[in-house]
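My current task is to audit a protein record that another person submitted. I have pasted the whole thing underneath without changing anything:
***
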Amino acid sequence: MKALSFFVTSILMIVVIPSKAAPGFDGEMRDAASHDELSSKLRMAQQSDPIKDSGPAIGEIEKDPASAQHRRSLLDSSAILCFRGKLTLVPKRAVLHVPEHLENRFGVNGKVEVKSWQDFYAANRGWIRPLEVTRDEAFGFKPLSEAKLEAIKESTTVVVATFKNGPIAVRPYVDPAEEAASSDKSETSTPPLK
């Protein structure tokens, strides 16, 4: 008798308790969308496409806008430093001073391996001197300080301008008063840097 009451109790627990514990769904049940319903919605969306009603394209649609950038060359705008089979590229205006005895270290010399600036500089610290410049000095908004100019003149190593330990091109400083006076005389703009 005990076994039968235990069996009935466990059956009731299995059936009754989960039905009360499971949350009920109060929403409306719908059927899945049929193929015909989906295709008619797609057809309606394609017919009411606002892009199709916008008319013909304006401007030069035959010309590739990226073709204007093809004329730029990384090698043409870079100075190539090469020594002992290693090579790196830096912006041309980043090289501030080259002594005569180190001019042969520019350009490609035989078979070389391209290295990042950090790796190349680490291997060639003896003849390269980085000169940290500010952002304003690099953009030409402020002149290089007298101490930096004197250090460049007296250097017996290649001086490369850096900003946060990476080479950066340094534009020449133009006094705003001189720039305003020269812009009043001629309306031609300065040519862009290569």
User: Anything to note?
Assistant: The first strand starts at residue 78 and ends at 83. The beta strands are 78-83, 86-91, 95-97, 113-114, 128-132, 158-163, 166-167. DSSP finds six helices and seven strands in the chain. Residues 2-21 form the longest helix (20 residues).
